[in-house]
Amino acid sequence: MQGDFHYYATYCAAMLAGYDHKDSLLICHAAQLVDFCSRSWLKKAGGPSDAATTQLQLEMMDARTDRLGLCDITRIWASFHFLPRDLYAEIKKGSKNYKDKYRMICGPNGDLLVETVKLAKGKGPAAAGIAMHVLADTWAHTYFAGTPSLVINNTNHHFYELIPKENGETERVKIVFAHKPGTPDEPDKGLYISSIYQASEDSIMNLGHGRAGHLPDYSYIHYAYLPAWAEYREIIKDNPSDYEKAFGQMVYALKYLRGDAEEFQKDTYAIGELEEQIDTIRGIIAKRQPDASEDWKAFGERLSKEEIPDFDMDAYLDAYRGAEKAAKADTYLGQFMEAAIRQKHMVTAQILESGNRLVGIPPRKAKK
Amino acid sequence: MTIRQRMKQIMVGVIMVLFALLMIAFDEKAYPVIVGVYATALEFMGIRLIWYYFTMARHMVGGRSILCRGVLFVDFGVFTGSLALVPHIYVLLYLAGTLAFSAVVDLLRAKEAKGIDSPWKLKTLQGGVELLTAIVCLLFMNTPALVVDIYSLGLIFSAITRIVNAFRRMPAVTIS
User: Fold this and answer.
1) A156/B61 CB distance under 8 A
2) Domain boundaries, chain A
3) Looking at residues B70-85, what average pLDDT do you find?
4) Integer Cα distance of B84 and B35 in angstroms
5) Are strands A235-238 and A159-164 parallel, antiparallel or unpaired?
6) CA separation (Å) from A259 to A152, A256, A262, B7?
7) Are B78 and B39 in contact (CB under 8 A)?
8) Phi and psi for B29 in degrees, rounded to 5?
9) Nearest to B51 by CA among A143, A201, A90
């Protein structure tokens, strides 16, 4: 997902969950900061490098893809952007390495999502924002894994946008991927920018949805394709429906974090409570545009009757830098970094516990 | 390309230059060594691909192409190794043939890259020079010493483009 959903839509979800304007801004800032909190930025901020929630393009181009390098990449991307749905997924085929990679496939409503939301409870708006980023991405990044893998993340020429026609049928429009990073996608021509094909299993080009470019991040798109792992079964991804669920689940999760609900359960959405706003939400999600920021912003400002400032990654930097060492943890950025480290350690520990070796060497189980 | 991949490309480029210089210095006497190393490298690549297919890519959409490439590499490796015992003119013919094949692959890849707005000019130049070298080798077949020098120069050019390519940064699509 992009800034439109992580920042502005998260703000709207927080307002609808009952937070005030100030806390909603902190929550959506944290949700968006997850896409910017790289080691380079943390160095500038003076924060711990373990709190990195993303890797910049330049960092990735030089990233090591040996065993240790892959573990580092996987810890970051699986913890914050591609939360695995089922670490114990039943799979009879393939080597141990293949099974490990298969079980890293991201998806919504997994056990790790419940853990993520519960972990943020009572830890303030920064932790809530991080949890909302992770939650939202489980819907957008479904079927891709947060570890470099050709056999899981590759896509091929069989990629179509599904456009409903007036007579009820669905038209299939071929999607073409080009490799020209930095240039914008052209949805009207069905032309999207993606990473180039690299036959090496662990190439950084095969991380997450790089081979499908930004296409999974667009809320309006409804598409069909052949994922590398699905044994030639065509997968249909309905982003408008998924993004609506993502929004409804964010409102529900934020209500839980705010103390309005006792438990956070899977497959639960606050859609029914959004009767007055649902048409507006569906309208923004379905509108054919690569960036829905303006629409979400206008909706958010209607909800709070306050102005939502543009996202500024350095907005709270001075407060963090200026704080005494002992008081840094009490600042908003200090809380963000602590929450990020907690999230990363929780996900890493769960992956290790499952016996998966992609984030490190699992501890030996004690003999009975 | 990661630092490790870059180092690998540079090392392959340097080895290619050394081969070319060996051939220029020792002419036909260097053939057995070159053929041996070439055959071993092809077999190693093939076995690695076949291993990757059976452990991972077997379950992947389009994975059979990896098996086919692996088998082809092993096959070429075995064939190349068998050339150590035949007259050197045939070895030269074979090397020119592989150069022409590599040129065609490079040109096709450049065409594909152009189609998806990827960098394509250096690849086209590489393919063009390799093809030209292979043709000139065939034209001067009756003067082996000259053919060795032409082939060696073509090899040095390929090595240099490989090293230049290793220093180019290939951007990945930012994932958010």
Assistant:
1) yes
2) 3-148+239-353, 153-237
3) 90
4) 6
5) unpaired
6) 39, 5, 7, 54
7) yes
8) -65, -25
9) A201
**Alpha carbons A27 and A247: distance in angstroms, whole number:** 14
| pLDDT tens digits, one per residue of A318-362 | 999 999 999 999 999 999 999 999 999 999 999 999 999 999 876
Return the structure tokens found at A293: 């920021």
Q: CA nearest A211: which of A269, A149, A271?
A: A149
Assigned token pair, B93: 């013919």
List alpha helices for chain A, DSSP H.
3, 10-17, 21-33, 39-45, 57-61, 67-80, 96-102, 111-120, 124-140, 150-153, 239-258, 278-286, 293-304, 317-322, 332-353
> Per the structure block, which two tokens stand in for A248?
């409804």
Whole-angstrom distance, CA of residue B120 vs CA of residue B117: 8
DSSP, residue by residue, A96-144: HHHHHHHTTBB-SS-HHHHHHHHHHTTSHHHHHHHHHHHHHHHHHTTT-
Of the candidates A342, A341, A321, the one whose C-alpha atom is nearest the C-alpha of residue A332 is A321
d(CA B16, CA B24): 12
Residue B144 neighbours by CB under 8 Å, 6+ apart? B27, B28, B88, B89, B92
Q: How many whole angstroms separate alpha carbon B144 and alpha carbon B27?
A: 9
- Whether pTM exceeds 0.90: no
Residues 56-75 of B with CB under 8 A from A: 56-63, 66
Is the Cβ–Cβ distance between A27 and A125 less than 8 Å?
A: yes
pLDDT in tens, A3-34: 899 999 999 999 999 999 999 999 999 999 99
A196, A209, A235: best to mutate for the B interface, most B CBs within 10 A? A196
Nearest to A65 among B2, B55, B174 (CB): B2
Cα dihedral A288→A290→A295→A300 (10° resolution) = 130
Residue A50's φ and ψ, nearest 5 degrees, are -65, -15
Which residue of chain A is at minimal alpha-carbon distance from B63?
A151
